[in-house]
């Protein structure tokens, strides 16, 4: 019986690591697998020549400046070659863990997995300064570098920000940022075990320093993962009072006071949680 080629076994390990962690750099792969830089390059070159992996150029998540870094992801052919066996195995393993040690063991596993994310992302988010929108954008950039395709969008009534801005109701409006993730590398696991989404949400809350809320997730059937980040209440400047002699002033004032509170800004598709 012919023994498997040691290089083939090693490249299977590399391919599995790229699948799990991509987009990932050669240095990160070498550190996690215990390979020298030269050995790591040799295996990556071989997998690239076989069409199983490809290079993705990623700019710095902190500034977006500088030369894009080389990171590796599975190609379409590589995805086909790997199949979904890893998901079946991981799901079965976690189900067995839960049966043997209870749901708390799965929560602890998910917590341990995301603790590394929190540690790596914290310097990136802290570098953005105290502004919450800037911190959310930095977090989105870090997520994109890890393959989550992060983006942010401010929702509410941005025109109320300036001291000279006026709303028809003159009432305070809550502004927020939506942090969206267009891809989830562990979507299948998160669908079976919601603890993964819950732990990730907790990481976002601690990194940003505010309570956040999940509006939709890919794991639950949404078209993106969307996290609501409150920015605080902004009050519109009052409209200049009309002259007491102006016709219709009393009637207009009475009507305004009797009017019911205006509805908040219409939620976006993400806020509505549409799949």
From TrEMBL:
Pfam families: HTH_20. Residues 236-275 are annotated as: Disordered. It comes from the Bacteria. Residues 236-268 have a biased composition (Low complexity). CDD domains: HTH_ARSR. This is Helix-turn-helix domain-containing protein.
């Amino acid at each position: 019986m012919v023994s498997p080629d040691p290089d083939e076994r090693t490249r299977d390990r590399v391919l599995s690591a790229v699948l799990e962690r991509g987009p990932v750099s050669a240095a990160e792969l070498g550190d996690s697998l215990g390979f020298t830089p030269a050995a790591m390059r040799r295996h990556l070159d071989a997998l690239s020549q076989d069409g199983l992996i490809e290079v993705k150029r990623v700019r710095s998540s902190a500034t977006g400046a500088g030369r894009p870094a080389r990171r590796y992801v599975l190609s379409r052919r590589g995805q086909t070659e790997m199949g979904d066996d890893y998901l079946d195995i991981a799901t079965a393993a976690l189900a067995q863990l839960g049966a043997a040690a209870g749901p708390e063991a799965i929560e602890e596993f998910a917590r341990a997995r995301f603790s590394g994310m929190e540690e790596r992302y914290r310097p990136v988010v802290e570098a953005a300064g105290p502004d919450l929108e800037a911190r959310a954008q930095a977090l989105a950039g870090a997520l994109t570098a890890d393959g989550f395709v992060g983006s942010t969008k401010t929702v509410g009534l941005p025109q109320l920000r300036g001291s000279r801005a006026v709303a028809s109701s003159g009432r305070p409006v809550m502004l927020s940022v939506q942090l969206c993730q267009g891809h989830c590398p562990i979507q299948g696991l998160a669908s079976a075990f919601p603890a993964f989404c819950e732990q990730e949400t907790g990481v976002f809350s601690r990194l940003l320093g505010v309570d956040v809320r999940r509006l939709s997730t890919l794991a639950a059937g949404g078209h993106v993962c969307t996290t609501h980040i409150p920015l605080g209440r902004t009050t519109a400047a009052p409209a200049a009072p009309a002259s007491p002699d102006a016709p219709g002033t009393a009637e207009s004032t009475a009507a305004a006071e009797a009017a019911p509170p205006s509805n908040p800004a219409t939620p976006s598709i993400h806020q509505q949680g549409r799949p």
